[in-house]
Please model this.
Amino acid sequence: MESNSAAYGVSLAGTGFDLIKFIKQPQTIIRFLSWVFAIVVFASITAEGYVNSSSEIQAKCVFNRNEGACHYGVGIGVIAFLACIAFLLADVFLPSMSNAQERKYIVMADLGFSGAWTFLWFVCFCLMADQWSKTQDTSGIPTDAVHAVIAFSFFSIGSWGALSYFALVRFRHGVDDVTQNYVDPPVDPTSPYPTTYTPPTYPSFQNTGQDLFHQPPFVPNPDPTGQSSYQPPVY
Model:
């Protein structure tokens, strides 16, 4: 449905973009922080998350030599980094959308993704902390990078949780606006038909022919001479 109201928590469609107001929005600030946290996590793992001992040629993951832990952290971080950019651009173009249905889809995507990544960052934090606690040989491992990965994974839980909350508030605000703005059309109780309905008219039936249904059955035709040709026999 087309709507020019402030549906789904954004300003009126067609209004100019206010950069200062956009930057000061809590959702924009938290999304930018989530973007930074994601960079720290996957960059720290990529740059300093693999080391090799003096007896090994191939570098191993610093988190208990678990390659899956490092791959998980890099994957979650890279996807979160790209998603933050995509949703920031969506927040920029959302006020210019006049179609409330398109706004709804974007807000629902934001809500679903933010909720999912809140959970995935929680899994990442638990995995990294557990694997690091099981790491026995820490010689040659850059502990600052390890601590940064664990800490910013934990920070990402809070930031993406806040983004989920803001997306939920925006979604509920949009649903309430659509519900309140809908008004049933007035109905005239004195009119037997809708205002746009016109009863059809039919032409009157005119019987121009002879009514054949009132003629008595089995009536012999009268003799035009008035005499009957029948004569009784003579005995």
Q: What stands out?
A: The mean pLDDT is 81. The longest helix spans residues 143-181.
